[in-house]
Specification:
The protein has about 260 residues and is mainly alpha-helical. It has helices spanning about 5-15, 35-50, 55-70, 75-80, 85-95, 100-120, 125, 130-140, 150-160, 175-185, 195-215, 215-230, 235-240.
């Protein structure tokens, strides 16, 4: 199966909400329903910057609990006035990041930057950008918004607010360990290691697969995360089963 066929099948399974694809646990699905658009943008901004080296579901559940109890902790001006020991305790109690000192530093530095440069509103990054590339460059200037988190935040903001850019398909999707493992199991790469080269190769496989399959990587990336994190496939056959495809024909290798 070519990458383009695979991308189409995964998106189709997601849109039909087959099996694990019925689980609404992507970042965009965790935004508080009663929030204003500004509050939604700030929620994504603060939570996604901590979505690394941690269990995502615990992070988002904790973030929603914090938002319901005191949404001030998603306000740049409030965070900048908060004592470090108080912020550190809140982050430990609710968001539980693995690297608490780095998390605290990100909250302070990124709050200062978003307030000074974008009127304390993450939406201004996108409203003031003519292209997706320009928006991504601005996002990558924030602490911790690297190739994975930065592209992930761009995806989540575009999916949530409907920003339209003519060059959006030229932006490479974020890639994590789930994506790399799935690409390897499907036979699209010869390694499942998280090396810079392999990560780049996987990004290009998914990007080209989506383009040729005429599906949006913004949707495919959400579906692929569910496939990896919720389905936890260990073989190619597991992947085929999860996306509702026929089994491997006798005599062929599962790899």
């Amino acid at each position: 199966m070519s990458p383009s066929e695979f991308c189409k099948k995964v998106v189709s399974a997601y849109e039909k909400r087959l099996g694990i694809f019925s689980n609404l646990v992507n970042a965009e699905d965790h935004i508080p329903n009663n929030a204003s658009d500004l509050e939604k943008a700030l929620f994504l901004f603060y939570v996604i910057q901590l979505d690394y080296a941690t269990k995502s579901q615990k992070l988002y559940e904790g973030a929603k609990r914090l938002y319901s109890e005191d949404k001030n902790y998603f306000s740049p001006s409030f965070i900048l006035k908060t004592k470090e020991k108080d912020l550190l305790k809140v982050l430990q109690d609710y968001l539980k990041p693995r690297y608490i000192n780095e998390a605290t530093k990100r909250f302070y530095l990124n709050s200062e930057k978003i307030e000074k440069q974008y009127e304390a509103d993450p939406r201004e990054i996108f409203k003031g950008s003519k292209t997706a590339k320009e928006a991504l460059i601005k996002v990558r200037e924030f602490r911790g918004f690297g190739p994975k988190i930065g592209n992930f935040f761009v995806r989540s903001m575009i999916n949530s607010f409907g920003y339209e850019y003519i060059d959006i398909e030229d932006i490479l999707p974020p890639v994590d360990v789930h994506d790399v493992r799935i690409a390897y199991l499907m036979g699209y790469t010869d390694s499942n290691q998280m090396t810079q080269k392999n990560i780049r190769d996987v990004k290009e496989v998914w990007s080209e697969g989506c383009k040729k399959g005429k599906v949006s990587w913004l949707v495919f990336d959400k579906a692929l995360w569910l496939l990896g994190s919720e389905g936890k496939p260990k073989t190619k056959q597991d992947i085929l089963n999860l996306v509702g495809l026929p089994g491997i024909e006798p005599g062929t290798s599962p790899m």
